[in-house]
Amino acid sequence: MQDFFAQFSMQALSAQLLVGLINGSFYALLSLGLAVIFGMLNIINFAHGAFYMMGAFCAYFLLNYAGLGYWWALLIAPIVIGIFGMILERTLLQRLKGLDHVYGLLLTFGIALIIQGIFQNYFGSSGLPYDAVPDQLRGAKNLGFMFLPIYRGWVVVFSLVVCFATWFLIEKTRLGAYLRAATENPTLVQAFGINVPRMVTLTYGLGVGLAALAGVLAAPIYQVRPEMGADIIIVVFAVVVIGGMGSIMGSITTGLALGLIEGLTKYSRFADFSNTVVFALMVLVLLVKPTGLTGRAN
């Protein structure tokens, strides 16, 4: 057993954990948006991966057609894609109010296919490079046991800040209290003069904006591709199910933890199992606790 562990270096383990932490940051940020939309609006948003992809493409367009770099993309892309999401909610998703969850899932799945098909028709399947990382985020820092790419460290830190800021907004502020109340008793909340449909639309836009923000963060690391959302959305849904549908803190912690577990699996002799470990864990959790680790039964 000692010989087995001896063949791996500390540097290799650190590299895999870093990759896992970066993936976990994207899982957390994307699953957070899904949890916000489902927890507040009861919509299973299968178009989330498409919005993630649109965020990356928005950053690419801003750079190549408007000359706006990375910092501007971090600000503009979530707003633009969030507004696009609000338009979809107003024109399409609102019509499904009161219907079974499967209708929202089918509609958003169809929207995702349409969006992906449009981008694939114009840009093909090959990736587009996005080299707009600011100079202050370039290079690497020597930690002694490994070199840490500064941009990847920034992605982890920034994702955590956004995740916990969103959690604080929804769980600890008056606006968040209004949102939670509107999901449980919209008629009563509306009686106090609060525009519930507008809050619903803004909440959906927030969830979509979080997906677009993740796309901007991913653009310099992964190539900008029409299929990038489809590649990650199934894993993100598994993260949300494990953490508990609609649980914001559960989505954040589960996303980070599963990213690290995925990285450790790649480091072990079961490296070929790394792509399915998330789904194996999902099956185990659902067998023990069908509502997820932090979910509550209705």
Please, could you describe this protein's structure?
This protein has 298 residues and is mainly alpha-helical. 71% of the residues lie in helices and 2% in strands. The protein contains twelve helices and two strands; from the N terminus they run αααααββααααααα. A two-stranded antiparallel ribbon has the order 1-2. β1 and β2 form a beta hairpin. α2 (10-41) crosses α10 (228-243), α2 (10-41) packs antiparallel against α11 (248-267) and α4 (70-91) runs antiparallel to α9. It starts with a helix and ends in a 10-residue tail after the last helix. Residues 1-8 have low confidence and may be disordered.
What secondary-structure arrangement, pairings included, does this model have?
Layout: H1 2-6, H2 10-41, H3 48-65, H4 70-91, H5 101-123, E1 140-142, E2 147-149, H6 150-172, H7 174-184, H8 186-191, H9 196-218, H10 228-243, H11 248-267, H12 277-288
Antiparallel strand pairs: 1-2
